[in-house]
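seq:
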Amino acid sequence: MTIAKLSSITLNEFLQLPETKPYCEYINGQIIAKPMPKGRHSRLQSKLCAVINQISETEKIAYAFPELRCSFGDRSIVPDLAICKWDQIPFTKEGEVSDNFILPPDWTIEILSPDQKPNKVIGNILYCLDYGCQLGWFIDPDDLSILSFIPNQQPKLLYSNDNLPILEGIKLQLTVDDVFSWLKMNV
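struct:
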């Protein structure tokens, strides 16, 4: 859903606006609201963050941030998960994580919500890849599939026991079935 099309607003002006819920993204001069996550989306997002961070945070390899605003190029987007390699995370001089990420994630994950348009979501993944992102996943809970994106390669549509590509350095092995099995909480 488009909130506003303001031809005179710049990315810097957008970044000065107060944050909203649902989050808004700035894409091609438009302010676009992301749909609020629903049950399956929220479950997959929280499990992916927990699994990735359990493996990668202690050794300072990477960190998975949910709903992190990333502003770079001429866009400001909020991927469902933005995974940054540790040496790419901006820290303050006190060692705290910075509030502002003016860079693309190293790995971006988007989970399709019922109210989202797939091409808009895939467009954000492709945009991240154009700016140096090393891996993208597009998760479709209705189709039980994950479309993976690696720079300079054709996307791969993965199902069931297909192994998923993981950001280099993260010692994690997952199949598509592993990811979607997290949706079954009451069995």
